[in-house]
Amino acid sequence: MAAFTSTILITGGTTGLGYHTTLLLAQQFPSAKIIIASRTDKDNAADTLNKLVQKQQKSSKTSSFAQIEYLPLDLGSTSNIRTFVQNYASRSYPPITALLLNAGLQYHSGDDLRLTPDGVESTFGINHVGHALLFFLLKPHLAPNARIVITSSGTHDPEQKTTVPDAVYESAELLAHPTDKDGYAKKSKGLQRYASSKLANVLFTYALDRRLSTARETKNSSTTSWTVCTMMDPGLMPGTNLGRDFGPVVVWLFTHVAVHLVWLMRLLVGSQNVHLPQESAANLARLAGMRGEEAQRSAGKYFEGRTARNSSVVSMDEKKQEDLWRWTVEFLARDEEEKRAFETF
Ligand SMILES: NC(=O)c1ccc[n+]([C@@H]2O[C@H](COP(=O)([O-])OP(=O)(O)OC[C@H]3O[C@@H](n4cnc5c(N)ncnc54)[C@H](OP(=O)(O)O)[C@@H]3O)[C@@H](O)[C@H]2O)c1
Across residues 61-81, what is the average pLDDT? Predict the structure, then answer.
């Protein structure tokens, strides 16, 4: 442990975008411990990544301190997240200089409403609620200059005309607990729930950035340098496991065939925003690695790849941002003391 001076924590670092980003960050920041966290690590991603890093460093010696480490985390369960953070805290890692809230999933099949053990619609629960709790509980472990980067998606924005149904946001309560009474459960099928959860990522980022900006202006807190931005859209990425709910054939085509036909996919979806995960990982690693003025300039911005651009019109709605923030804090905080801790910057 003594060899490392900082920590980078990346959710969903075991596959896809997170895996490739971890590799780049490990090369770029050799003195950083890197924690990758997800529900499973069936392919021993941490081991493979450590070997790749060592090979690229052309080191013949095996380090006794593995740079990349896997810790199990289920963002769909608030009790699991609390256990994860206790486990994390007991290991005395150096302060977190970059927190990448990147894990995500989507359900394609059926209209069935899937709920987390806490009774929240699963896509919203994992992609937004779980990440929010992880952030709140990890606050005491963040370094004064920490970067927080949240992976969203162009699917949050109807103007982008992705093939995914438009995101909907009436209230956080309705995303968490869709009801048939107002037709919300029905119209909100799997991919639409995904788009809405990615909209929640953007709304939450703006609400958090507002609080961090105020803290920076008043300059009386240890958190005043934290900067948060969304990497919006890594773009459509053939080669990741995001489409696993579509079934094994589609996953095989997406991971083995589509990766060689990026140009064709660009034609088919009518957009240049199709990238291999390695390419998008370079953009995500760049955002996570920003420091100083560059980091401050990127605060509260939404990026498509390397370019800051406007997120959707709905995501700019401050009332919706605050509705989501309030609901999230109320839902997650165990008591008034914890609520105050979550809200203090
Ligand atoms: N692929 C695309 O075309 C695309 C486009 C735009 C945005 N994105 C975004 O990019 C991010 C990464 O996705 P990807 O494409 O790299 O997909 P991926 O290959 O499926 O990676 C997703 C990662 O999230 C983890 N994860 C899923 N559910 C989790 C849970 N409940 N708790 C903890 N970890 C969980 C997965 O591990 P486990 O399943 O083992 O937990 C995996 O490590 C996501 O936020 C996604 O929305 C992807």
Answer: 89
